[in-house]
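Continuing the batch. This is chain 6 of the set; chains 1 through 5 are on the previous pages. Same settings as before, nothing changed between runs. Recording input and output for traceability.
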Amino acid sequence: MKSSFQRLGKSLMQPVAVMPLAAILLGLGYLIDPSGWGANNVIAAFLIKAGGAVLDNLGIIFAVGVAFGMSKDSHGAAALAGLVSFLTLITLLSPGAASQLRSFDPEWATAGNVDNFYYQGFSKVGNGNAFIGILAGVIGSIAYNKFYQVRLPEALAFFSGRRLTPIMASLMSLVVALILLFIWPVVYAGLVGFGQWLLSLGAIGAGIYAFFNRLLIPTGLHHALNQVFWFDLVGINDINNFLGNNQAAITATYHPGMYQAGFFPIMMFGLPAAAIAMFTVAKPERKSYAKSVFIAGALASFLTGVTEPIEFAFMFVAPQLYLVHALLTGVSVFLAAQFGWYAGFGFSAGLVDLILSMANPMAKNWYFLVLAGLVFAVIYFLIFRTLVPKLKLQTPGREEQDPNEGVELTADTNFTDMARVILEGLGGKENIKSTDYCITRLRLEVVDETKVNEAKIKQTKVAGVIRPSQKNVQVVIGPQVQAVHDEFVKLI
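Output for chain 6:
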């Protein structure tokens, strides 16, 4: 199970890599036009639409990325299988299809304030649902790894091998969708009921809500709790009350922003500090990789409050730390609610929204959130800096190096010279029949296998040369394989 989670965590790095820029684009657009979200400014609309193209479709991106990353040979057919699985799931679990299959009024799934919450979970299944995307990616990778070499009878030979994998992924998804048709609404309704109970607990309930908000991020079911506290599902409507300066909403036990403010110290300070800590304990030869992962994620979290690039970087490879993160988030939201530090957001708890909150009449003692954030930054840094190496957690930059993954090359590597030596070792361009690459390897087909000089190729310090068949040669480069392949193609 640990190995599977580590493979899943590693595969998430590809889709996660596109999120920081998208978050910053959305944040800038929102900063330009915070009230209209692009309706009042064409530049804001352009930026918001560009960022939303990624963040609004995370389910699709995760489905493709996870399936591709968890497949045995990182083949595009696995990505297609993941996409087919995702489309099957969201279609069968959509409110329209689910209402027909389960025989209920489709309006129950889309209404935001009905008494029966049982069917509303289906409205949260769509292109942006990361949990469904990850699930579909896993299904796609299983289908690929199990069936990509299967040979069917002659009459069905066209559907053999990799062509069979998306078909099997679709069939497997039918079974999963059938199960979720009954399980998903039960879980969703249970979480909504749980949220209603938390309302009676005041600041303690706010802290417990925040803990489960983070804990449920990987499943996408945090939306169920958010509906209770942030929107008008049961009359709280915290976001709109804060942004709309709703003085009538203030009571002895509630102030607008109560269920939002405590997220600022975590998203602006705590998680960026955790990212820096994980970077400092990365292996020396993997520092450049870890830096690219964590610095971009830290900026997105601090500026816009989009935390997924950091959270998905460690939630599966280090679930212990993710539990600590959820607990600390709960503590932060509890403290803010208990001591009356109020701020709110229209997007998320980043610097952009904090600046906008300062001018809001509902904001109260917001500067304490910054001070608390500095304290949480120290706590996060010390915890992550201590526990990651002590528990030997394989956060990005600390993964166990697979001998078949090659060495870590840098931007200073002369890829042209490296490609030239490899080409000479393969017998020259006349001996190359075809060339391709996967995540770590050059994959080549040669005309005359006797002309291949492995010793010559290994002069470039590659991790190895693999000969899976007589005419096929694989040169293990590492993560920078694309740079070598591009120069190799130029030479031939």
